[in-house]
């Protein structure tokens, strides 16, 4: 029912232990021209040390023993239940990667909305938000440097508005077929991903019908997922009060951002 474009493209680093400590670039070093025999000034890049802990994501799935036994020749009920639970775990990861806030849920990790906020990597549509414009979208994309984003992530409503703007500008809507055989629209050569986890009811000023659009560059100098063991299924066993068997689907996962210049946000996008 829900698309997961972020998980389709996000690279993951498999780590040992329960956390990753890394250096996030804060400012680049400078260089200068010098005269012969002049004294050279030292100026190295500065880094902020960041520690990202893995979080425990998962849920229990009970399978009724009667259904599993009597319907086994028609459908493997247990396999279906576990597949759907694993899909729910993956969807929860993507939702958290976008709107997660550890101050609201201390057991979760921070997502793009929390990491970027309204700081230097964010572009505002206005005090109370405004309708999307191509100029504002381009301004947000220019915050990704060096290079350009690997993905633009937006809600379905924002995608409809973007297509409307491009048709009004007589701009051809580009697209490619991705590795999963699905048609993906492009904007200036950048794939557009539609996520069902980007809300259209964010509050900006007096407006409560706002949305956000994100640009992301992936990789070990940008945004990556963290994992230890991937999604696992653990059989808990028979239940005492029900004729059912419980399985636990879990994932030790997290999110790491190696450079703040690899993510950007356009917020206050109104319908």
Question: What attributes does this structure have?
Answer:
Major capsid protein gp5 fold, 16 strands, 9-stranded mixed β-sheet, 6 helices, 271 residues, single chain, 5-stranded mixed β-sheet, alpha+beta
Describe the overall structure.
The chain has 271 residues and is α+β, with helices and mostly antiparallel strands. The chain has one domain: Major capsid protein gp5 (Major capsid protein gp5 fold, 2-Layer Sandwich), CATH 3.30.2400. The protein is 22% helix and 37% strand. The chain has 6 helices and 16 strands. It has helices at 5-9, 65-70, 77-99, 112-116, 134-141, 156-168; strands at residues 12-14, 19-27, 46-53, 55-64, 122-124, 130-131, 151-154, 174-177, 183-187, 190-194, 202-204, 207-216, 223-227, 232-238, 244-257, 263-270. The strands form 3 sheets. Strands 5, 6, 7, 8, 9, 10, 11, 12 and 16 form a 9-stranded mixed beta sheet that branches. A hairpin with a 2-residue loop joins strand 9 and strand 10 (190-194). The longest helix has 23 residues, at 77-99. It is globular and about 85 Å long. The mean pLDDT is 89.
Structure at a glance:
Helices cover 22% and strands 37% of the residues. It is α+β, with helices and mostly antiparallel strands and 271 residues long.
């Amino acid at each position: 029912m829900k698309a997961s474009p972020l998980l389709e493209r996000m690279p993951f680093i498999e780590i040992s232990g329960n956390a990753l400590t890394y250096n996030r670039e804060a400012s680049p070093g400078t260089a200068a021209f010098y005269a012969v025999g002049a004294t050279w000034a030292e100026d190295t890049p500065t880094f902020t040390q960041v520690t990202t802990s893995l979080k425990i994501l998962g849920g229990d799935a009970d399978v009724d023993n009667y259904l599993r036994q009597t319907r086994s020749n028609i459908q493997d009920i247990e396999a279906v239940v576990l597949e759907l639970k694993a899909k729910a775990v993956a969807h929860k990861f993507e939702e958290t990667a976008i709107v997660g806030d550890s101050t609201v849920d201390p057991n979760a990790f921070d997502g793009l909305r929390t990491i970027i906020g309204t700081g230097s990597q964010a572009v505002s549509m206005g005090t109370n938000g405004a309708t999307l414009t191509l100029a504002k979208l381009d301004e947000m994309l220019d915050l990704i440097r060096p290079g350009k984003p690997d993905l633009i992530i937006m809600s379905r409503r924002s995608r409809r508005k973007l297509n409307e703007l491009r048709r009004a500008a007589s701009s051809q809507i580009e697209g490619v077929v991705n590795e999963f055989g699905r048609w993906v629209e492009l904007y200036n050569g950048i794939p557009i991903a539609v996520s069902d986890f980007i809300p259209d009811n964010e509050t900006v000023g007096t407006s409560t019908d706002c949305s956000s659009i994100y640009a992301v560059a992936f990789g070990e100098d940008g945004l990556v997922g963290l994992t230890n063991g991937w999604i696992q299924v653990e059989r808990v066993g028979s239940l005492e009060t029900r004729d059912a068997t419980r399985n636990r689907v879990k994932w030790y996962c997290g999110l790491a951002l190696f450079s703040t210049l690899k993510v950007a946000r356009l917020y206050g996008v109104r319908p």
